[in-house]
Amino acid sequence: HHDGQVYEKTNEEINLEEVERIQLRKSQGIHSRSPAGNWKFAGPNKTFDTDGLTKVTWQTNIYSMDIALSDSTVLYAGGEDGGEWKTTDHGKNWTLTTSNIHHGAVGAVKIHPKNPDTVYAGTSGKIIKTNDGGKNWTTVYSENGLWTNDLAIRTTDGQLIFAATNKGLIKSIDGGKTWTKVFPEECWTIKFRRNNQATIYCVKQNGNSSSFLRSTDNGTIWFTIGNGWYNPGISETVTGALIAVCPSNSNKLYAYLCGNGGTLNGYVGVFVSLNGGDSWNNTNPTNAIGGTYS
């Protein structure tokens, strides 16, 4: 505004602008990527600096999010320096929960499976926890330079917790009170098997490559498995991974791998296993690896 005040657009105004942009592209013969469904901006649409108080104008990407298993109206979204946001109405309204703590980007967030007021998040070299729906946060684990890639909580009791971090795989068996390090190599992703949560899957760094690991005893002993797991070439490096467990078939896993060097350009591929990680196949119909985004 001409008086120096910053006007904050509503979600409805943002969605209307997006519709107008799409119509303009169509009228000018500019084609967007193939639509994957109808999407609308849900927020949050405010951005704060790392002190949680100072409003800023740059964009903030959402790095992490989780929906409460016990109450689907509750969702937490962790921003790129934007703090930890919470909605209790499916995204219609958002509240910043970390305004009273110093934070950076929120790499991972996980809600307790039975209590939506208990939440864990990774930010600024620490793992923080709230027991009151984000009103207050305490640090339950800290390490210099820590970045949390992923968090997983056993849904049967909420006591067994894993944090996949750049400092290794970290484990708690008492709801976050105490933590032990399982191994020191960077771990990118950690997931429980759905119908048998003594089985856990993890991908960790292994030199310029990665290893797919599975434990069947609640994370005490781990085995490297995976016939057909991707091995990079001499000039290639795996730089990240995500695992997803199919909700309708616990034996079916998907792995998304990132990498650099050669023809990777940040992307390796999406792979699928139909036997709990014993063997893997490329989902690309021509078995292509890497390439540019399209």
Describe the structure.
This protein is mainly beta and 294 residues long. The chain is 6% helix and 36% strand. It has one helix spanning 11-27; strands spanning 62-67, 75-79, 84-87, 95-96, 106-111, 119-123, 126-130, 138-142, 148-153, 161-165, 168-172, 180-183, 187-192, 200-206, 209-215, 223-225, 237-245, 253-260, 269-273, 281-282. The protein has a 4-stranded antiparallel sheet with strand order 1-2-3-4, with no helix packed on it. A 4-stranded antiparallel sheet has the order 5-6-7-8, with no helix packed on it. A hairpin with a 2-residue loop joins strand 10 (161-165) and strand 11 (168-172). It is globular. The mean pLDDT is 88.
End-to-end distance: 38 Å
Gyration radius over CA:
21 Å
Summed over residues and divided by their number, the pLDDT gives a mean of: 88
Give the helix tally. 1
Structural class: mainly beta
Detail the poorly predicted runs.
none
Number of strands: 20
